[in-house]
Amino acid sequence: MRLFFAWQLKLLSYRDLAEIAFTMTSETFDDSQPSKTRLKAEADAAQDIGRKLVELPKDKLKKLQLEESLMDAITETKRITSNGAIRRQMQYIGRLMRETDLAPIVEQLEKWEGKHQEENARFHHMERWRSRLLEETKAIELFLAEFPQTNVQQMRTLIRNAQKEHAAGKPPKSSRELFKMIREIMEGKRVVADAGFDDGAFEDGMSE
Q1: Cα–Cα distance between 152 and 155 in angstroms, integer?
Q2: Domain annotation covers residue 116
Q3: Nearest-CA neighbor of 103 among 38, 40, 17?
Q4: pTM score
Q5: 11 C-beta neighbours (distance < 10 Å), count
Q6: Which of 8, 85, 104, 157 allows an S-S link to 4, with CB 3.0 to 4.6 Å?
Q7: Residue 174 near residue 190, CB atoms below 8 Å
Q8: 200: domain range?
Q9: Residue 175 belongs to a domain with what CATH number?
Q10: CA pair distance 178, 156, nearest whole angstrom
């Protein structure tokens, strides 16, 4: 088992925590007296996982099906404002965590974290496409090659209007609409229909 100093615990990934959780709950533990170093590492790891639980919203906490005592302690921590009281409460949560099977908890946390990272990556990919479409003349051709279902007329109009808004110092309404269109196309939700888009309405709005 790897051992961590307190400052290193802040850098723990869920995979690291899973390793510690398995070690803490494994039935293969030696019955010999555990060392103080190992006990300290286990306590810090348990408290670190508890800290992650405290940061979760209520709906996710319910999905973890935690023991009532642990759930009550987490709920109480969310209400505490004093730093000293929070520290003592986290130590209490850490003690409860050491009596809990941490493996399924860490496994679920890791799944949520992976999904969050995936969503962030997808968002940044969409944001990069919007920037390229607004800044590079040939970017729309590259976008169409990758997403041929795109409503070309609508996209060109949004790009043109977004550029006009930027130049005039106006709110980026068309830029937001362009991002929404990119998101819907990339997520496969957009229904291509030129008849439903009034090109003139956008141009009229810009001329007002």
Answers
A1: 5
A2: no
A3: 17
A4: 0.43
A5: 8
A6: 8
A7: no
A8: 136-207
A9: 1.10.60
A10: 10
13 SS3 class: coil
pLDDT at position 1, please?
A: 37
Q: From CA 141, how far away is CA 120, in angstroms rounded? A: 25
Q: 85: helix, coil or strand?
A: helix
Residue where the block lists tokens 């005592």 = 69
Q: pLDDT band at 46, cuts 50/70/90?
A: confident
- Residue type at 58 in one-letter notation: K
> Do residues 32 and 100 both lie within one domain?
yes
Tell me the per-residue pLDDT of 113-136, one tens digit each, with 9 for 90 and over. 776 677 778 888 899 999 999 999
Q: Tell me the CA distances in angstroms from 186 to 126, 148, 149, one per residue in order.
A: 8, 11, 10
140-185 pLDDT, tens digit each: 999 999 999 999 999 999 999 999 999 999 999 999 999 999 988 9
**Single-letter residue type at 64:** L
Pick 15 or 48 by higher pLDDT.
Answer: 48
Q: What is the dihedral of CA 42, 48, 53, 57, to 10 degrees?
A: -170
Residue pair 64/55 in contact (Cβ under 8 Å)? The answer is no
Over residues 66-99, the pLDDT tens digits come to 888 988 998 898 888 888 898 898 888 888 877 7
- H or E element in which residue 181 lies: helix 173-186
Is 104 in the same domain as 146?
A: no
Cβ atoms 190, 181 nearer than 8 A? yes
**Cα dist. 205→138, 153, 161 in Å?**
26, 16, 9
Residues 18 and 100 in one domain: yes
